[in-house]
Design goal:
By secondary structure, the chain is mainly alpha-helical. It has one domain. Helix content is about 65%, strand content about 0%. It contains 15 helices and 2 strands. Helix 4 (about 80-90) runs parallel beside helix 11 (about 270-285). The chain is globular.
């Protein structure tokens, strides 16, 4: 909005030329989202507390300590991130960009699914919300629609292809099966972040780290000079997603202020499903779907731990981990919550650096 209002006046006021630069608008989106989070955070927390007298329902089959330390904490805090993210994006992004609307649409739609799930949990006073099958179906439908809109906008050679990290000229053509692949990426990323969100601050920091990495990737692949130099596949217009991702990072940082241990609010499925979906959609636009598996490797590890646990128990009757997802395993082993969270942040940072290395090692 600011871009459309102020940039046309750059001829009369040269200082407004700054709005042409993605870096300036990305910085503006970060600060705006952070301020919105700080302003509306206390209001939202008080409103949710008044409506959720018992807070988020705690799993009875989870770590016993959660029944003491997490009881009474309100959920649906992801609404704060979505509010800050959406407002900042609308203020600072070029709203003529189709990619911005596609990614923002996935984010908000997944947030709505998560909100419905959280609402049912709170009203029913149980840890199960909408059925897993219905949740996956809704996510898949939204992902397919988004995939079609993104593919329609991508350059011809990239429409139905998958780029391979470290290999500069390799594109695997999936044909129209790419729609299903892109949908799996979005749905998978969404649920992987959801599984990771189990301790105070555990999910939001890796999400912000991944958002920072993909903001850089979006900026580079959307710039013909940089993409040519780094031998990346050029995606015109993808750079505008740096503004969106900056807003995501700023909103996430503001949320962390209230989610830091001991958390005053949980993001719930409202936040985890939407943020994961956002990262998945961005990876599809930038043609870095496989890099997301590296940058978001922590989310992959958490998801794999659940899959392995279920398969092992069904096939052998034995559990490999004390509890899944992986962070609960370490809780059962006696690790302090803060130790688990910080070490997982370190792992996320290392994996982000590994993902960044794919930009040059080709």
């Amino acid at each position: 909005m600011l871009f459309h209002l102020l940039f046309p006046m750059a001829d009369q006021f040269p200082i407004l030329n700054v709005f042409r630069y993605l870096t300036f608008r990305t910085g503006g989106a970060i600060i705006t989202a952070l301020i919105i989070s700080f302003l509306f955070g206390p209001v939202l927390i008080n409103a949710l507390k008044s409506r959720q007298s018992a807070g988020q329902p705690i799993r009875t089959d989870g770590p016993e300590s959660h029944l003491l330390t997490k009881q009474g904490t309100p959920t649906m805090g992801g609404f704060l991130i979505l509010l800050a993210l959406t407002m900042a994006t609308l203020l600072w992004a070029d709203l003529r960009n189709v990619y911005v609307w596609a990614v923002l649409g996935v984010t908000i739609a997944y947030g709505a699914i998560g909100f419905l799930d959280d609402y049912m949990k709170v009203t029913r006073r149980e840890s199960g919300g909408i059925s897993a099958k219905l949740k996956l179906l809704l996510q898949a439908v939204i992902a397919v629609i988004a995939a079609f809109s993104i593919m329609h906008q991508l350059p011809g050679p990239l429409t139905t292809t998958l780029a391979v990290p470290f290999l500069k000229n390799v594109l695997l053509n999936f044909g129209w099966m790419y729609v299903l692949f892109a949908a799996v990426v979005m749905v998978g990323a969404s649920n992987a972040v959801n599984l990771t969100d189990g301790l105070d601050g555990l999910a939001i920091v890796p999400v912000m780290i991944a958002a920072g990495v993909f903001a850089l990737i979006a900026y580079l692949v959307g710039n013909s000079v940089f993409s040519n130099y780094l031998q990346l596949h050029y995606v015109p217009g993808a750079g505008e997603l740096a503004v969106f991702l900056g807003a995501l990072a700023g909103g996430g940082l503001g949320f962390l202020w209230f989610n830091a241990p001991p958390a005053k609010i949980f993001m719930g499925d409202t936040g985890s499903l939407s943020l994961g979906g956002a990262l998945g959609a961005v990876s599809v636009v930038t043609k870095h779907e496989l890099v997301l598996a590296i940058v978001g490797g922590l989310f992959v590890l958490e998801t794999v731990s659940v899959i392995v646990q279920v398969l092992s128990f069904k096939l052998t009757g034995k559990r490999i981990f004390a509890m899944a997802p992986l962070h609960h395993h370490f809780e059962k082993k006696g690790w302090a919550e803060s130790t688990i969270v910080i070490r997982f942040w370190i792992i996320a940072s290392i994996l982000a650096l590994a993902g960044l290395s794919t930009l040059k090692l080709r």
